[in-house]
């Protein structure tokens, strides 16, 4: 039995073949994947992972697609969309959320229960799973600051990992290997951070800063991680690369760590610009920039 037939019997699973997965990425570029599989139950997720293993089909998890670049040749294997695992529940001063829930919805629910601290992250267009995998952050805060535990699926069983076991670092975690899917997370908030006069200011400031500093258009946010003690955007700008373009993609005039893709852009052009920036910055400053955006498929 092939993968699609086998999974058609599974509850909470929808399988699409030769599918334009670019529709689920922020850049909107790249080719088809062999299988695009939407899961909306834990059992379904387990069935999909186990079937992929059994059939020797490589797989990766895809959530809101705001930090991935899909190759023009697509992805040979299965992209497993976890956005259907999107429950969000309030549980005595904590929030439990499925990996497919949007981070901003989790933070808004928390705020409605007077649970503060997550508001700094409200503008990040992440799902819970994507945010945990990348340890997404903004304005000095990261998602790991408001996490108590993360539940993953491993060989048919659920395992609860403590925050320490997730090995969160700057834009990294153990989940980056894509070996085991994140199923859900328990968010806990510092109760000493209550509502204060500056709460409105914090939200306004984060939104204003984002609007002021980040460009419109198709992007994946920051392309490179900030080197210790500096900002990738400042370094790229200092190398005279603001506005530099290849084909239909260019370095944003507003924020040099953003690559903006125009209509008709290809992943090859985006990747070529990433490589150009990296090489040029190294030539001029000796600094090696590390890519934050995750690649799906093969790039030359
Ligand atoms: C306009 C814009 C602004 C941005 N601003 C910020 C910012 O301020 N701060 C910041 O940190 N980032 C920012 N980003 C980048 C991006 O939003 C984050 O990296 C975010 O965490 C990615 O979440 P996602 O749901 O889109 O994940 P995806 O892009 O779908 O996936 C990212 C990674 O997570 C993995 N993953 C997703 N779900 C699961 C799961 N269930 N189990 C295991 N692995 C999983 C994927 O395999 C992939 O490796 C921005 C992006 C854009 C487009």
Q: Could you give the topology of this structure?
A:
Elements (H helix, E strand, L loop, with lengths): L2 H5 L5 E7 L13 E7 L2 H13 L4 E4 L5 E3 L4 E7 L6 E4 L2 E5 L4 H10 L15 H7 L2 E2 L2 E2 L4 E8 L2 E6 L19 E7 L10 H15 L18 H7 L6 E2 L2 E3 L7 E3 L5 H19 L8 E3 L4
Parallel strand pairs: 2-5, 3-5, 4-16
Antiparallel strand pairs: 1-2, 6-7, 7-12, 8-9, 10-11, 10-12, 13-14, 14-15
The structure holds flavin-adenine dinucleotide.
The site of flavin-adenine dinucleotide has 32 residues, from strand 3, helix 4 and strand 8.
Could you tell me the CATH topology label of the largest domain: Uridine Diphospho-n-acetylenolpyruvylglucosamine Reductase, domain 3
So how many helices? Answer: 7
Q: Please provide the count of β strands.
A: 16
Overall form: globular
Strand order of the largest sheet: 6-7-12-10-11
Bound molecules: flavin-adenine dinucleotide
Rounded to an integer in angstroms, the radius of gyration calculated over CA atoms is 20 Å
Order of helices and strands: HEEHEEEEEHHEEEEEHHEEEHE
CATH-defined architecture of the largest domain: 2-Layer Sandwich
Fraction of residues in helices?
A: 25-40%
Strand fraction band? 15-25%
**Broad structural category:** alpha+beta
Number of domains: 3
What is the CATH first-level class name of the largest domain? Alpha Beta
Distance between the amino and carboxyl termini: 34 Å
Largest sheet: 5 strands, antiparallel
Low-confidence stretches: none
Instruction: Give the overall pLDDT as a whole number.
Output: 93
